[in-house]
Design brief:
- This protein is α/β, with parallel strands linked by helices and 277 residues long.
- Helix content is 45%, strand content 22%.
- The chain has a ten-stranded mixed beta sheet with strand order 3-2-1-4-5-10-9-6-7-8, with helices on both faces.
- The protein is elongated, with a radius of gyration of 20 Å.
């Protein structure tokens, strides 16, 4: 059985993403590992030699009590969606979220990470701050990022952005496996700019190789890559957008400009970040 790490602070964004995590767990036959982390304030123990341990214990206990109180709420959500059969485990860890997330992925041998975001500001932080190196680069499993406004709906179309690199095929096959389990269609997009170095023969080879799969290959000529991707998501009814981290520099710019407002407000769909480096 696969494992999904689901970091949560029990916020509205996390609760919304939890629904996606439950439904995704059902599709890929996985168990959920709920990860809640908290940071202990830094105290100089030489100035608090007697009550340092008590301070630590009280903070730890308070977080444990909150954790214990919130879990039944999540289980209720699972029951309401008839997904109570999904195995849910729990981890409460003190320290930095991203450090603990990386450790949890390694220790649990997780296959995916699913996490919620609050929207534009979080996208900016996620793709430009330390989160980028720690999660996208540091965690070598696919990460599904769910904007707070992305309410769950049945996945019918999965968008897959590619540059027709040979190693992209491995990730496309992974996406196709997921698509089969939810009877979804995969629409692959390549934005062909005036500086494109992809030969027509390469594109044809892909079409022949994946001829028996439920995938549609689209090649759209444009030098405005961001707007073309947005149009692709909007007009091709994409429910989940998949990208690969070898294009991280582009993907960072994708979510750190005014374009991020469009992708999170006008579209509000989950983004699945794959790894093949």
């Amino acid at each position: 059985m696969k494992k999904i790490i689901f970091p949560t602070d029990f916020s509205e964004a996390a609760t919304n993403a939890f629904v996606h995590a439950l439904e995704f767990a059902k599709v890929v036959n996985a168990e959920l590992v709920l990860l809640h982390t908290f940071e202990i304030p830094v105290y100089d123990s030489q100035f608090f030699p007697e009550n340092y341990a008590a301070i630590y214990s009280s903070i730890e206990l308070a977080n444990f009590e909150m954790f214990k109180d919130e879990i039944p709420k999540l289980k209720t959500i699972a029951m309401e969606r008839n997904l109570e059969e999904i195995v849910i485990k729990h981890r409460l860890m003190d320290g930095d979220l991203l450090y603990n997330l990386k450790n949890a992925v390694e220790e649990e041998k997780a296959d995916f990470v699913i996490m919620g975001t609050n929207g534009i500001s979080d996208w900016t932080t996620f793709f430009t701050g330390s989160n980028t190196s720690s999660v996208i680069s540091g965690v070598d499993v696919p990460v599904l990022c769910v904007p707070i406004d992305a309410k769950f709906k049945k996945i019918k179309v999965i968008g897959f952005t590619t540059r027709y690199r040979e190693k992209d095929k491995k990730e496309l096959r992974k996406v196709l496996k997921i698509a089969k389990k939810t009877n979804a269609k995969v629409r692959s997009l390549y934005v062909k700019t005036s500086e494109s170095d992809v030969a027509a023969e390469t594109i044809k080879e892909w079409e022949v190789e994946f001829a028996n799969e439920n995938v549609e290959f689209l090649v759209l000529p444009s030098d405005d890559v961001k707007e073309t991707i947005l149009d692709f998501v909007l007009y091709k009814d994409v429910d989940v957008l998949t990208t690969i981290t070898h294009k991280r520099s582009f993907f960072e710019s994708l979510f750190t400009s005014s374009f991020s407002k469009k992708i999170t407000k006008e579209v509000s769909i989950p983004v699945l970040i794959m790894h093949n480096d």
